[in-house]
């Protein structure tokens, strides 16, 4: 059995009782960064052995892991933060396990985009999760696609690229598109910046936005709705 075990995205209490039990019970934890996960395990007094499993070795490790699972071992997969497989390694291993008839159990738990989306104030009945945009090749195409979506979309972005990303989104979606930048979720400096893309792009120019961030952007219809509301309000 392979368990996908979500871990906190900031606040160490954001981990389920079942996740803690399984981190103790599995024979081996496959961790993206063993040092980082080591800190979490130490906090909860867990001494299960760990092995590195990350974007740079996942291809070469899959067969060995399948062998261990087929030999009857219970393995847990964790990423640095949040849910394995969501903008993190996991998919390759899950697919290989299912093809080999090995059971995969994915525990419900923390992931950054859900709290960002639900507190954004933007419609969350339908949404598109984009994750990270490609840095170069294919970036323009993705931006065009995102701009055309009728519903809310979600991006992960790093602090040193956020200003550029907001300017590009403003150029593709228009300045009035409502958006929300959720920063440092569940951490001491948690912050939500809500407004239009133009408002957020200006904010990112004025001050350096640090830490981890999720960007939520309203769909194509949402700026039209905004304008109508504003007109009706007058
Ligand atoms: N597997 C993770 C999940 O389930 O959300 C995502 C991993 S991805 C490599 C890391 C990105 O997630 C960050 O660059 C940021 O966009 C987002 N993220 C992770 N933790 C966050 C936090 N505490 N606040 C805001 N965004 C966060």
Describe what you observe in this structure.
The structure is a single chain. With 234 residues, the protein is of the alpha/beta class. The chain folds into 2 domains: 105 residues, Cobalt-precorrin-4 Transmethylase, domain 1, CATH 3.40.1010.10; 121 residues, 2-Layer Sandwich (Methyltransferase, Cobalt-precorrin-4 Transmethylase, Domain 2), CATH 3.30.950. Helix content is 40%, strand content 19%. It is built from 9 helices and 10 strands. A 5-stranded parallel sheet has the order 3-2-4-1-5, sandwiched between helices. The protein has a 5-stranded mixed sheet with strand order 6-7-10-8-9. β2, α2 and β3 form a beta-alpha-beta unit. α7 runs antiparallel to α8. The C terminus is likely disordered. The structure holds S-adenosylmethionine (SAM). S-adenosylmethionine (SAM) binds next to β7 and β10.
Spell out the blueprint of helices and strands.
Elements: E1 2-4, H1 17-25, E2 28-31, H2 34-43, E3 50-52, H3 58-70, E4 75-78, H4 91-99, E5 104-106, H5 113-118, E6 127-131, H6 139-148, E7 152-157, H7 162-173, E8 178-183, E9 191-196, H8 197-206, E10 213-217, H9 220-233
Parallel strand pairs: 1-4, 1-5, 2-3, 2-4, 6-7
Antiparallel strand pairs: 7-10, 8-9, 8-10
Helix pairs in contact: 3-4, 6-7, 7-8
The structure holds S-adenosylmethionine (SAM).
The site of S-adenosylmethionine has 23 residues, from β7 and β10.
